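Final report, closing paragraph on structural work. Over the funding period we assembled a curated collection of sequence-structure pairs, and we close with a single example.
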Amino acid sequence: MFNVLHLESVVKVDFIVRKNDPFREHEFLRRQRVELPEFSVWIVSREDLILSKLVWARESGSEVQLRDLRNLLSADADLVYIRDWALPLGVTQMLEDLLR
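Its predicted structure, as stored:
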């Protein structure tokens, strides 16, 4: 993983190298193209970002990830999809705790 900062606009972009496991391959297929004024970019779906942050939070215990998760889960997200992947990723309990 690495990130790039655009200092003039104060924008940070995280780049994460895709791993070869079923979730990461599925996540890659679900990415979405976003058109911006001067370029286009591919981004991960909200649901896949939530799942990734759950995994990162489990591994790191990071309060930043948990805060981000609370914010992401406060908006519309496909909870059926998230719960389906949470089990094989080992983050079901953390997800349910955050949803309470």
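The longest helix spans residues 46-60. The beta strands are 2-6, 11-15, 32-35, 40-43. We thank the funder for supporting this effort.
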